[in-house]
Design goal:
Blueprint (H helix, E strand, L loop, with lengths): L6 E4 L2 H5 L7 E2 H4 L5 E5 L6 E5 L2 E5 L5 E3 L5 E2 L1 E5 L7 E4 L3 H9 L7 E17 L10 H5 L3 E17 L10 E8 L5 E19 L2 E4 L5 H5 L4 H12 L1
Parallel strand pairs: 1-14
Antiparallel strand pairs: 1-8, 2-7, 3-4, 3-8, 4-5, 5-6, 9-13, 10-11, 10-13, 11-12, 12-13
The chain binds zinc ion.
The site of zinc ion has 4 residues, from β12.
């Protein structure tokens, strides 16, 4: 019997909210746990997309770079894509896709979303590399670069996390995009789908890996009361 894929996550979103941006796991190590996913690089150096076992970062100037194994990440989610057959979908905007997926009755489980196809419109953002002392995530999100493209072909990939896990992840949908020609990518803000294959991968197992030798993390204090507001501001 096929073993269900597992969701592997290094770090938590709450760590980024608190300004813990230092990379604490190498891409080489990360890719042992999955060939597909999303994340960010050390210092919030762009938005990361992992496809077919290659990690890319989309930087603030719009350039896309395939990352070498020694680059480090503070926060990334990966899984092994089972490449199960998808379903054809067309015409969705981002809110329409979210409403459609929410209607599938999977609100309390983690799952991956992958859309491969043509997008009539795509709007993304990228954060940009920060230097120490790091600000909080919401300040970085205020300085983001926004990109828009029309008739772009590529892959949208990301995850749904139940509300209960806000802080571990960003609750709700967290989606990134990379065009096939690498001309457009980043954290997805909006889109209008032409047509694409939609595949969903649900996870019974969530493997959370923490940077137990990072001194900043070990000493950090997390402000739980403001966490939800800060994530909503930075990630949506
Ligand atoms: Zn993102």
């Amino acid at each position: 019997m096929r073993k269900d894929p597992k969701l592997f996550q290094h770090g938590t979103l709450a760590m980024l909210v608190a300004g813990l941006f230092d990379g604490t796991m190498s891409i080489e190590e990360l890719l042992k746990h999955g060939d597909s996913g999303i994340g960010t690089c050390s210092g919030l150096d762009g938005e990361m997309v992992i496809l077919d076992g290659i990690a890319y970062t989309i930087r603030r100037d719009g350039t896309v770079e395939a990352l070498s194994g020694d680059v480090k990440t503070p926060f990334t989610c990966v899984h092994f894509d089972p490449k199960s057959p998808g379903q054809k979908v067309s015409g969705f905007s981002l809110p329409e896709l979210e409403a459609y997926l929410k209607g599938q009755g999977m609100g309390n489980i983690f799952y991956a979303v992958k859309l491969t196809g043509r997008f009539a419109k795509m709007k993304t953002r990228t954060v940009f590399k920060q230097e120490k002392p790091y600000p909080g995530l919401s300040e970085v999100a205020d300085q983001q670069a926004v990109f828009e493209g029309e008739n772009t072909t590529g892959t949208l990939i990301g995850y749904y996390a139940p509300d209960l896990y806000q802080g571990i992840a960003s609750s709700g949908f967290h989606l990134h995009y990379l065009s096939a020609d690498h001309a457009l990518g980043g954290h997805v803000l909006d889109f209008q789908l032409a047509e694409a294959d939609l595949s969903l991968t649900h996870f019974s197992d969530f493997d959370l890996h923490l940077p137990t030798s990072n001194a900043d993390f070990l000493q950090a204090n997390f402000d739980l009361a403001s966490l939800n507001d800060q994530i909503q501001q930075a990630e949506h």
